[in-house]
Amino acid sequence: MGAKHESTGAAGGGSRDGDRRIGRRALLVGGTAAAVGTAVLARDELARLWWRVPGVERPREEGAVDYAAARWVAASDENWRRADRPDDFGVDMVIVHVTQGSFASAVKAFQDPSHRAATHYIVGQDGRVTQMIRELDVAYHAGNRDYNERSVGIEHEGFVDRPQDFTDAMYAASARLTAGICARYDIPVDREHIIGHVEVPGTDHTDPGPHWDWDRYMELVRRAATSAPSPGASKSA
């Protein structure tokens, strides 16, 4: 979500992030396998793609979370796309958002199929964490397809022009969450890989805004990354 330079469409995702078709991917895989003269590549690729065949669903545990401290509340299916990350799309980035509203309003928006945008997580001012999309799936949150496919998005309750909204509990909880994500995908803990929505190419959003304390946040993420393992080391199916 987050503040915009001007109102140009659904917050976060912009237009719907269209899916890739299995036919084109399978043809590319087949051609590559033939070129290198091996069936191993095709077999491994098909093992990752079998669940994309119409009528076949990848096994998923209902209500499972990637971060143990999070509570699961499902976003609308219209606000994200099924994937098999990091097998099909490598994850190398965390994107920080601000809701421009309350925690409850963000949850409601992400459950609305007409919103066409959602992040993987929402962090409240009291430190609570709700997961709405699995990390293996592509959330429509950055307004840029490439960035959507390679990132995990985290919303933070509040408004960009109200520094008092960014509480100690929020910073601490978000830092632990981000440190866990970075550990799972071997993401460097730096500002090249942990960015704000405003830094996404082509965005019309300004969040997390000038009052987000990046120096403080990054130090907290580094501390969490070097301390005892944070909750949520397991991946959902």
CATH level-1 class of the largest domain: Alpha Beta
Residue runs with pLDDT of under 50 for 5 or more positions: 5-11, 18-37, 230-237
The CATH superfamily label of the largest domain reads: Peptidoglycan recognition protein-like
Main sheet: strand order: 1-5-4-7-3-8
Helical content stands at: 25-40%
SS field, number of helical segments: 6
Q: Any idea what the CATH architecture of the largest domain is?
A: 3-Layer(aba) Sandwich
Rg over alpha carbons: 18 Å
Main β-sheet, in a few words?
Answer: 6 strands, mixed
Task: Explain what this protein looks like in three dimensions.
The structure is a single chain. The protein is an alpha/beta fold and 237 residues long. It is 30% helix and 11% strand. It has helices spanning 22-36, 40-49, 103-110, 145-150, 168-185, 214-226; strands at 71-72, 80-81, 93-96, 121-123, 129-131, 138-139, 151-156, 194-196. It has a six-stranded mixed beta sheet with strand order 1-5-4-7-3-8, sandwiched between helices. A two-stranded antiparallel sheet has the order 2-6. The protein is globular, with a radius of gyration of 18 Å. This is N-acetylmuramoyl-L-alanine amidase. It holds the Pfam family Amidase_2. Its EC number is 3.5.1.28. Keywords: Cell wall biogenesis/degradation, Hydrolase.
